[in-house]
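A common beginner's mistake is to predict each chain separately and then try to dock the pieces by hand. The better habit, illustrated here, is to supply every component at once so that their relative placement is modeled jointly.
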Amino acid sequence: MPVVSESLPLRRVAARTRLDFWFDAAILVGYTVAYSYGFTGVVIHEWLGIALGIALLLHITLHWDWVVRTTGRLLRPRGPDKLIWLVNLALLFAMTLCVASGILISRVALPELRISLPLDDPFWDRVHTLTAEVTLGLVPVHVALRWRWIAGVGRRLLARRPR
Amino acid sequence: MRFLRQLAAVTAATAVVVLIGLAWHHLAPDSFGGQGGPGPHRFVRGQAATAVRRGAKVTPGVALNSGGTSGVPSIQLGDLLEPVNLAVLWNTAWIEAAVIAAVVIVDAGLRERRRARRGSSR
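With all components supplied together, the output reads:
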């Protein structure tokens, strides 16, 4: 059995784990800033929202194996991750509708891209507000349900390596 | 190749959600009832961006218009990301931190109870 000494370098964190950790952290920070409309103003809010939409597609793609695996196990009586699966499904709906309705009511980003949607319907304003508030409740739950992984990887990534 | 296949699957899944949203709008456009501005509003200190015409060219740091007779309130984009509005950002971060803390505490408590039950049954 190998002897673990404090002078040995810390266990290396896999590149994929590092990517997941920093990418997810960036999404969380981006979401927090984008939600704070009164701080960012309309221009940053809209562009950041579109960037978040793309980031979310990549985030789900990176975890697609988990989605397929967990969905397949849902019918088992004691299948793991059922609560996380439900929260993630609700978040997929809320976040997608939030970004989509945000694009539909865009006043700066879409015209800047020379796209014009003949929409002037308060329905999408309300959908945007409602789904944004739902995501504000669900995003932290989504993060917190993985707190053990975050704490473990964060400790390894942020710990100082001995020289 | 695998990544592209998965990305296509994710794009299809999100497209289904968007279609559900469009169907919702088509079938029940009055689901939120009444007229007027959208949902609850948040008040911020300082000058906030309140109205930008569709298609208006805006550059950060530049006053969009002077209001004048157009009836559109003036908007000072240079005011954006101002420290005075940081309270809005802290408010969001505080809500997130509070929910995370609550879920972590409940989750840790449940795990502890499960561990104790398993220990006592041995």
